[in-house]
Amino acid sequence: MKRLKKLAVLILCAALMCGCNSEENNDGRSDRLSQMRSGSVVPVQAETQQESGYAPLNYEIQKGMWLSYIDLAPMLEVGSEEEFRGNYTAACENIVSVGCNTVYVHVRPFGDALYSSELYPVSSYVPLENGQPLFDPLEVICEISHDFELSVHAWINPLRCQSESFFENMDSSYQTKEWYDENSDKIQSVENSGNLWLNPAYPEVRGLIAEGAAEIAENYQVDGIHYDDYFYPTTEKSFDEQCYAQMAQGQTLSSWRLDNISEMCRDIYSAVKSVDERIEVGISPQGNIENNYDFMYADVREWCAGTGYCDYILPQIYFGFNNSVKPFEQTLQDWSDIAAQGEVRLIIGLGVYKIGEESEFTDNQGIIARQAEIALDKCQGTALYTYNSLFEPDYDLVNRMETEIQYVAQVLKA
């Protein structure tokens, strides 16, 4: 097992008040987990990847491709490392063929790990033998991606976890399982969601998430840590009503939740930069700016204008040129205005999956390429969602996507 360094932590006592702090619990597992449980993680020192001989690979202009767990699942289900290597190599060949230089690879979709972790249980997508992983997917992904000169950004969902049935069978040594067994407010069910969700109001929760990001950055030759718009899963007061009453100190619910998510972002950023300052941290919020505030409690203006949240912001502007609510070019300009308030780089996410779902995208060949061209002219990059949408479409879209691939390649390779 790779060596895990011991991160120093500062205990933010002021945030632990009014009975919302759970007792400390050192169960004898790794120093990393024991330290994480003692408070929110704010690392102050660390070795860097430079000392191990690896220099993170990133590009001034990012041309990215999302590989979700849905994209990875069929590559992994073959079982053997050799076959996964073949599948992932073929994917990289496709990705570079259209001119992409960066991949955002889903390595923690549901509070689980497609890599070797002391903090999160192994993902159900990882092939097992006698309960043990047959190989380490992220290790293979980093190796092959770098062979193709692709920058690897490990994509995590910070708050979304597996279903209750998954937790019933989870090993009791994991912190999330302990919270579940204790019926703790730190992990919650949400109406109309089959998943459990972590509550970012607690420093211990934010600490676990930050430590998980640092664990990836330390143990793998990743070039970035990336997370998307799965922030608060609901606007319902019942999600965190008790903790809000004890911790908010007069803040409105909206303001308090915005601060909780921003604090989580700062903790992730600090934890990753403690491993190597050159590893990039990126956030991909919803393209609809108002929805970020009204539904996700994501303070995107603060993240762009301030410091210590992210290196790049990648809004998902999955709208057509003729969208009646959020037309593409105006929405991109709105984001450009926000990004101009600080030093965070702006990269534009494009929804390839909309081809076949919305008439404007389906009927206008080259629409994604035109959007990419505009994004590259005005911003610091663009990204395509997702791999399967472009390269593994439904049968009736195969010819349509072949044409789109040609148009996209012309733009990204220009």
Explain what the structure shows.
By secondary structure, the chain is of the alpha/beta class. Helix content is 40%, strand content 12%. The chain contains 16 helices and 13 strands. The chain has helices at residues 31-37, 69-76, 81-97, 137-147, 164-168, 175-181, 203-219, 241-247, 253-275, 289-296, 300-305, 328-339, 359-363, 367-378, 387-391, 398-412; strands at 62-67, 102-108, 128-129, 132-133, 151-156, 187-189, 196-198, 224-227, 280-283, 312-313, 345-346, 348-351, 381-385. The chain has a nine-stranded parallel β-sheet. A hairpin with a 2-residue loop joins strand 3 (128-129) and strand 4. The longest helix has 23 residues, at 253-275. The chain is globular, with a radius of gyration of 21 Å. It starts with 30 loop residues before the first helix and ends with a helix.
Question: What labels would you give this structure?
Answer:
two-stranded antiparallel ribbon; disordered N terminus; 12% strand; 414 residues; alpha/beta; nine-stranded parallel β-sheet; single chain
Quick overview of this protein structure:
This protein has 414 residues and is of the alpha/beta class. The protein has 16 helices and 13 strands. It is 40% helix and 12% strand.
The percent of residues in helical segments reads: 25-40%
Mean of pLDDT: 90
- The whole-angstrom Rg is 21 Å
Q: Which structural class should the secondary elements be placed in?
A: alpha/beta
- Name the beta content range: 5-15%
Strand elements, count: 13
Question: What order do the SSEs take from the amino end to the carboxyl end, as H and E?
Answer: HEHHEEEHEHHEEHEHHEHHEHEEHHEHH
Query: What ranges have pLDDT less than 50 throughout 5 or more consecutive residues?
Result: 1-30, 32-47
